Amino acid sequence: MIKVEIFYNGEKDKETPELVESIKHRFGDKVEVKLIDTSKEKTPEDYGTINPPEVVIDGKTKIKLDSKEKLEEIVTKAIF
């Protein structure tokens, strides 16, 4: 199972939570998705500086998101 942590700013971004639910439904038990609102939660120090929207895959690979479509593409590539 792939672990995907999605960091976003909930004060500015209202679409990401809906997209994450879609990803959870689409990929089911192939992916563990954790949504982290950086306006409410502190980012793990191990990851260094996180500038939302950003994705961390398996606690190792950080990827900056430039679009909502990119998020689904990243998750799909990580699984397959």
3D architecture notes:
- The chain has a four-stranded mixed beta sheet, covered by helices on one side.
- The chain has a single domain, classed as Glutaredoxin.
- The protein has helices at residues 16-27, 68-79, and strands at residues 2-8, 31-37, 54-57, 61-64.
- The longest helix is centred in the first third of the chain and has 12 residues, at 16-27.
- The chain is of the alpha+beta class and 80 residues long.
- The mean pLDDT is 90.
- The relative contact order is 0.27.
- It contains two helices and four strands.
- The radius of gyration is 12 Å and the shape is globular.
- Strand 3 (54-57) and strand 4 (61-64) form a beta hairpin.
Number of domains: 1
What is the helix fraction of residues, given as a range? Answer: 25-40%
**CATH hierarchy class name:** Alpha Beta
Q: Give the CA-CA distance, first to last residue.
A: 11 Å
Secondary structure class reads alpha+beta
State the shape.
globular
Which strand order do you get reading across the main beta sheet? 2-1-3-4
Protein name: Thioredoxin-like fold domain-containing protein
What key attributes describe this structure?
80 residues; 2 helices; Glutaredoxin; 4 strands
